Amino acid sequence: MNSDATNELSSVERTEQLTWELLDGQLSESALSDLEGLMRNDPECLRCYISCVQLEQDLKQLFHGEDAKGQSKSNMRLPGFPPINLASDGNSAITN
Protein backbone atom coordinates (compact mmCIF):
# COMPACT_ATOMS: atom_id res chain seq x y z
CA MET A 1 0.00 0.00 0.00
CA ASN A 2 1.42 3.39 -0.88
CA SER A 3 1.86 6.13 1.70
CA ASP A 4 -1.01 8.24 0.30
CA ALA A 5 -3.44 5.36 0.80
CA THR A 6 -2.04 4.73 4.30
CA ASN A 7 -2.66 8.38 5.24
CA GLU A 8 -6.32 8.05 4.22
CA LEU A 9 -7.00 5.15 6.61
CA SER A 10 -8.88 5.74 9.85
CA SER A 11 -7.02 4.84 13.02
CA VAL A 12 -9.05 1.62 13.34
CA GLU A 13 -8.35 0.67 9.72
CA ARG A 14 -4.66 1.35 10.25
CA THR A 15 -4.73 -0.76 13.42
CA GLU A 16 -6.29 -3.62 11.49
CA GLN A 17 -3.70 -3.34 8.73
CA LEU A 18 -0.80 -3.28 11.19
CA THR A 19 -2.24 -6.13 13.25
CA TRP A 20 -2.43 -8.41 10.22
CA GLU A 21 1.13 -7.47 9.32
CA LEU A 22 2.18 -8.34 12.89
CA LEU A 23 0.38 -11.68 12.78
CA ASP A 24 1.97 -12.43 9.40
CA GLY A 25 5.43 -11.63 10.79
CA GLN A 26 5.84 -8.69 8.42
CA LEU A 27 5.68 -5.73 10.82
CA SER A 28 8.68 -3.39 11.04
CA GLU A 29 9.90 -1.93 14.33
CA SER A 30 8.60 1.54 13.43
CA ALA A 31 5.21 0.12 12.45
CA LEU A 32 5.11 -1.80 15.74
CA SER A 33 5.58 1.51 17.56
CA ASP A 34 2.73 2.97 15.50
CA LEU A 35 0.48 0.04 16.43
CA GLU A 36 1.32 0.38 20.12
CA GLY A 37 0.52 4.10 20.01
CA LEU A 38 -2.79 3.55 18.26
CA MET A 39 -3.87 1.03 20.89
CA ARG A 40 -2.72 3.19 23.79
CA ASN A 41 -4.62 6.23 22.54
CA ASP A 42 -7.85 4.71 21.23
CA PRO A 43 -9.92 1.98 22.90
CA GLU A 44 -11.52 1.18 19.52
CA CYS A 45 -8.07 0.40 18.14
CA LEU A 46 -7.38 -1.94 21.05
CA ARG A 47 -10.71 -3.69 20.42
CA CYS A 48 -9.82 -3.99 16.73
CA TYR A 49 -6.47 -5.56 17.62
CA ILE A 50 -8.11 -8.06 19.98
CA SER A 51 -10.72 -8.95 17.34
CA CYS A 52 -8.06 -9.60 14.70
CA VAL A 53 -6.00 -11.73 17.06
CA GLN A 54 -9.11 -13.67 18.11
CA LEU A 55 -10.03 -14.27 14.46
CA GLU A 56 -6.49 -15.50 13.77
CA GLN A 57 -6.74 -17.96 16.67
CA ASP A 58 -10.23 -19.10 15.66
CA LEU A 59 -9.03 -19.79 12.12
CA LYS A 60 -6.00 -21.69 13.39
CA GLN A 61 -8.24 -23.77 15.61
CA LEU A 62 -10.66 -24.44 12.77
CA PHE A 63 -8.05 -25.37 10.20
CA HIS A 64 -5.43 -27.01 12.39
CA GLY A 65 -7.77 -29.03 14.61
CA GLU A 66 -6.55 -27.74 17.95
CA ASP A 67 -8.14 -29.60 20.82
CA ALA A 68 -11.19 -28.39 22.72
CA LYS A 69 -9.29 -28.35 26.02
CA GLY A 70 -7.33 -25.32 24.88
CA GLN A 71 -3.99 -27.13 24.85
CA SER A 72 -2.78 -24.90 22.07
CA LYS A 73 -4.45 -21.70 23.12
CA SER A 74 -2.14 -18.78 22.84
CA ASN A 75 -1.13 -15.78 24.86
CA MET A 76 -0.38 -12.99 22.43
CA ARG A 77 1.90 -10.34 23.88
CA LEU A 78 2.70 -7.01 22.35
CA PRO A 79 5.59 -5.15 24.00
CA GLY A 80 4.29 -2.67 26.55
CA PHE A 81 0.90 -4.40 26.88
CA PRO A 82 -0.29 -7.26 29.09
CA PRO A 83 -0.70 -10.66 27.41
CA ILE A 84 -4.06 -11.39 25.82
CA ASN A 85 -5.37 -14.82 26.77
CA LEU A 86 -7.15 -16.22 23.74
CA ALA A 87 -9.34 -18.82 25.37
CA SER A 88 -10.77 -21.57 23.19
CA ASP A 89 -14.25 -20.84 24.56
CA GLY A 90 -14.27 -17.50 22.73
CA ASN A 91 -13.80 -15.41 25.86
CA SER A 92 -10.72 -13.29 25.35
CA ALA A 93 -9.22 -11.54 28.32
CA ILE A 94 -6.35 -9.22 28.96
CA THR A 95 -4.31 -10.78 31.74
CA ASN A 96 -1.73 -9.30 34.07
UniProtKB/TrEMBL annotation:
Residues 66-96 are annotated as: Disordered. This is Uncharacterized protein.
